[in-house]
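User:
Care to share a sequence and structure tokens?

Assistant:
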Amino acid sequence: MSLFRTKSIEDLIRTSQEGKTLKKTLGTWDLTMLGIGAIIGTGIFVLTGEGALTAGPGLILSFIISGIVCAFAALCYAEFASLVPVSGSVYTYSYATLGEFIAWLIGWDLILEYALATSAVSAGWSGYAQSLAAGLGLHLPTALSAAPGAVKGVTTYFNLPAFLIVLLVTTLLSVGIKESTRVNNIMVLIKVAVVILFIVVGVGYVRPVNWTPFLPFGFKGVLEASALVFFAYIGFDAVASAAEESRDPRRDLPRGIIYSLVVCTLFYVVVSAVMTGIVEYPRFEGIAHPVSLALQVAGQNWVAGFIDLGAILGMTTVLLVMTYGQTRIFFAMSRDGLLPRMFSTVHPKYQTPFGSTWLVGIISSLVGGFVPLGRLAELTNIGTLAAFTLVSVAILVLRRTQPDLPRVFKVPGVPVVPILSILFCITLMTQLQALTWIAFFVWLTIGLFVYFLYSRNHSVLNH
């Protein structure tokens, strides 16, 4: 009955190969595109504007700092993904190293992260979709255009587009991951092309004077913006969740994680440089479409329309991957007995966790419909940073307790790299608001009640 009982890596792998199994269809290309699909979205199309208000042109440094933090964590993820090719991401890794109680807490944390990320992105998607529709002369009733309190001075009750897009993505995911990745790959290629179009067109309108002063709010503003735009990087965690559906996870997962992170960091840095070079940062106040605004200021309205379309596709892929990631976390926790069995029930035809996919989709769509974007982003970030911290701790523990395990990919510079990852994550967490910390601890407290009242007794290890 120990709180820190662990599952051996051999047992985890054997369990993933017996009974309820998922179809193995994904290669390096699919996993890389899955990562890019999750990473390039709300962060680049929406949060760049909010980050610029906090850091000014120093937003470039904010993305670099967040990218470095993610790079250290990504190396730790890559070692675990190649070592434990099982659904569940950092939850599964913690179960094998830090024990069931810590694994439960991080799994509960990941549930919060993915649910709020999906809801937050759906709210951003809604803003761009309505902007594009308005250009075509189509308008929703104001009451159904945003969550309550999302727009100052305007009475709104429900974000209908946010609600509907999550249900559409849920339908796609419930019928099969291979079908979903095909759609994802096409949309990723389109949105990458749109981002490149923005860079190529926008670079000619950059005025270096707009980068002065480069740090109007000092380095503190850069750090605060890093904590905010960190939301832009959370997608590669979902790549690790695809372990059981990867054809060769020991080789393909590390590549997918690292390739997607490198590509997206380069895009973020260049886009933020061009964007703040075209527009003086104070003009982003209250703007939900900062990237297309930059092209409108440059007089390139026709390109701005393509940017709106790219943003819609970009955030659709993020929704796809985030919803996918959460259902796989549920799947792993349910298979271990910590959540009810319905979450690991695999559809006989589609070979997907059909019931849990729909439950997750319905909850996320309702949250996206009723809760404004700003309140969701920071909660998502604190959950992600906590997960990254735990996976870095787990690498240190596993290197000491099981040094002879055959590792296809090894984190270089242990223990320095995992320790730096932990310190960087904690530093960014300290930049988040007190209300975010309170909400985070309330969620973990609820998780404690669930664990001791249900999960501990129903755990497979308990029997």
